[in-house]
Amino acid sequence: MKYLSKLLLFGEYTVINGSRALAVPYNRFYGEWELAAVPDERLLRFAEYLDDAEGHAFLNVPAFSKACREGWIFRSNIPLGYGLGSSGALCAAVYDRFAKAPIHRHTGKLNLLKRQLAWMESFFHGASSGTDPLISYLNYPVVIHPQKGIREISLPDPEGSSYQMFLLDTGLSRSTGPLVDLYLKKCGQSDYASMISGDLVPLIDQLIDDYLNGAWKKVCERMQAVSDVQWQYFPEMIPEAVRSIWKTGLEKGSYSLKLCGAGGGGFLLGMSMSEAAIDTLRATFPCYLL
């Protein structure tokens, strides 16, 4: 079985301030169990971490430890430092295979599942929301609401639309923690916090609604608006290597770019009505149609 990477399409950062977020599995990158000749030392250390009272409550830790010693490894092509959930896919795979009574994917217990997966992933990050492993385990798109929890959704069919969404690969890895810390520090400034809560949070919620309704013209307009806000207020999250093409998109309007996750590298999410514009971007950066 393959455990897919995840994309946070909308709601990066603003989910902290009360907006919704839309996260989806992404099948270009994935991981799966494989039997190797040599045990993976990282997995053995992970098994040691799980070997406490909390881990034993919902995982068959001895069975996982035994499998690690026998040479079972998690082979993954998910790039590190891209915000694609490389450690989340691993946690989902361990939970799926070694949970004592795994929570079914289509139940009302997703918040409990998310907490369990967050505890597992804290081994890799020190702290985790549980979102990345949840998406990999569920293998379906969800809308995340800070107060109302998680809701499974269906994505609209873009067939026949002249609007095209794509991912642009910056080729850069990054660390999420420092970027989030910077954002929280900036939110301590009253003017910045007012812009986020008064302007950007409503814009993101409207963008998610329009996307789920397949209102592509409105999605394109709101993507351009988000791109402009992020250009002005999130400059530290926009890598220097893509600043010129980001600005060109704003000035010419032939495409728009926004952060896809924390920024600083990884993927950017783009939207355009022009295949030629996307081809021009491809001359410098890999682009993948969604």
Written description of the protein model:
The chain is of the alpha+beta class and 290 residues long. Strands 1, 2, 3, 4 and 5 form a five-stranded antiparallel β-sheet that branches. The protein has a four-stranded antiparallel β-sheet with strand order 7-8-6-9. The protein has eleven helices and nine strands. 41% of the residues are buried. The mean pLDDT is 93. Helix 4 (86-98) crosses helix 5 (110-125). It has helices spanning 41-50, 53-58, 61-69, 86-98, 110-125, 131-138, 176-187, 190-212, 216-233, 240-252, 275-282, and strands at residues 3-10, 21-35, 72-76, 142-145, 149-152, 164-169, 255-259, 267-272, 287-289. It folds into two domains: 3-152, Ribosomal Protein S5, domain 2 (2-Layer Sandwich); 164-289, Alpha-Beta Plaits, CATH 3.30.70.890.
Proportion of beta-strand residues: 15-25%
Q: Domains counted in the coordinates: how many?
A: 2
Q: Span between N and C termini?
A: 23 Å
- Assign the CATH class of the largest domain: Alpha Beta
Protein structure class: alpha+beta
- What name is given to the CATH topology of the largest domain? Ribosomal Protein S5, domain 2
What's the architecture of the largest domain in CATH terms? Answer: 2-Layer Sandwich
Categorize the overall geometry: globular
Q: State the helicity in percent bands.
A: 40-55%
- Evaluate the radius of gyration: 20 Å
Question: How do the helices and strands follow one another from N- to C-terminus?
Answer: EEHHHEHHHEEEHHHHEEHE
The biggest beta sheet reads: 5 strands, antiparallel
Alpha plus pi helix count: 11
Low-confidence stretches: none
Per DSSP E runs of 2 or more residues, the count of β-strands stands at 9
The chain-level mean pLDDT equals 93
